[in-house]
Design goal:
Blueprint (H helix, E strand, L loop, with lengths): L10 H5 L23 H5 L6 E6 L4 E6 L9 H16 L5 E6 L11 H4 L4 H19 L4 E6 L3 E2 L1 H8 L2 E5 L6 E2 L11 H11 L1 H10 L5 H7 L4 E3 L4 H13 L3 H21 L1 H12 L2 H18 L1
Parallel strand pairs: 2-3, 3-4, 4-6, 5-7, 6-8
Antiparallel strand pairs: 1-2
The structure holds ligand L4XM7KOE.
């Protein structure tokens, strides 16, 4: 799959990328009014794990993660998200995307821990490339991206939200958001740390990253991790209102400004993508790291039972 940032996707995606986009079921019975929103036009955007509800009239697509039970970022979900975003981005009908969850109570549980445990270096390489690719595509998107965070949003979930232009979080004390990697015995790569610093500042990041803090909504708002906290049933409507505010600005000026603000952070990764992959692979392959992750995953599984 030829993507601007050069990621290689799983063999089946490379051979038949759209094989990942079968089984499309839009999350509503009627297509949106207007050309790009209906029939086959709509079908092209969605996939098994990513529902897309396009509204050509407003130029906004609502993209819902659907990887139950917790939208963990498996290689398949990462790949489908990148492909869906690329397709929306390439369709000039659309100027904005709202990212949200189709799974109850969870926006995304972050990286799929089963992708990080007990696999081989080739798998970790492929997986980390896909993580980098999704981050670059969202962080540098020319579209307006609004995160409608309708559930728990730890680690990789928070990373997706941070790459958006604006974040709206449901006011439920169980919906924590933040980068808790240290609690799993792993560290946050520099480019995600930079994104955190860009959003909440250096001192707050220094504390939150070391402590692995997960913030409840009121604290997330206070620290500047999210822009609005609203009642749960108003998350999507608020995200749409925010989107309208951002779309009121001429695209070219907004896009140039976004690039100006984000380029240095993205360039740091682009300059050393391969080294970042090697660091990740050698780090994740360490026995001590594998052990920490397995203990964490086991605790998660036991907590349920
Ligand atoms: C020097 C080089 C530096 C390189 C450094 C590299 C380090 C890389 C770091 C990259 C940054 C990102 C990291 C991550 O994202 S790691 C993932 C962290 N995520 C979490 O800690 C969240 C864990 N999950 C939860 O807290 C809860 O599940 C959640 C609040 C999200 C939902 O709770 P709920 O009660 O609704 O659901 P359950 O806990 O019962 O879970 C249901 C089942 O899902 C499984 N599960 C949960 N999360 C994950 C996950 N992230 N991956 C895989 N599986 C997950 C859970 O075990 C349950 O499974 P079973 O039904 O089988 O029991």
């Amino acid at each position: 799959m030829a993507l601007a940032s050069g990621v290689r996707f799983p063999a089946r995606a490379l051979l038949r990328p759209w094989s990942l986009l079968r089984d499309t079921t839009l999350g509503r019975s009627e297509p949106a009014a207007g050309g790009g929103g209906g029939g086959d036009g709509a079908r092209l955007f969605g996939s098994q794990r990513v529902l897309v509800e396009p509204d050509a009239a407003s130029g906004v697509a609502v993209m819902k993660f659907r990887n139950p039970p917790v939208n963990s970022l498996s290689l398949e979900l990462l790949t489908e998200l990148v492909i869906s975003l690329e397709k929306v981005e390439n369709d000039k009908t659309f100027r904005g995307v709202i990212l949200t969850s189709a799974c109850p109570r969870v926006f995304s549980a972050g990286l799929d821990l089963t992708e990080l445990c007990g696999r081989n270096p080739a798998h970790y390489t492929e997986y980390w490339k896909a993580v980098q690719e999704l981050w670059l595509r969202t962080y540098l998107s020319s579209l307006v991206l609004v995160a409608a965070i309708n559930g728990a949003c730890p680690a990789g979930g928070c990373i997706i939200a941070l790459a958006c232009d604006c974040r709206v979080l449901a006011d439920n004390p169980k919906y924590h958001i933040g980068l808790n990697e240290t609690l799993l015995g792993i560290t946050t790569p520099f480019w995600l740390k930079d994104t955190y610093v860009n959003t909440i500042g250096h001192r707050a990041s220094e504390q939150a990253l070391q402590l692995g803090s997960l913030f409840p909504p009121s604290e997330a708002l206070q620290v500047g991790l999210v822009d609005q906290v609203v009642p749960e049933d108003q998350v999507l409507s608020t995200a749409l209102s925010e989107m309208a505010r951002w779309l009121a600005v001429p695209d070219h000026a907004r896009q140039l400004t976004k690039t100006m603000m984000r380029k240095a952070t993205a360039d740091r990764l682009l300059r050393q993508r391969d080294a970042d992959i090697q660091n990740f692979v050698s780090f994740i392959c360490r026995d001590s790291i594998q052990k920490s992750l397995q203990v964490y995953l086991e605790k998660l599984r036991q907590r349920k039972g």
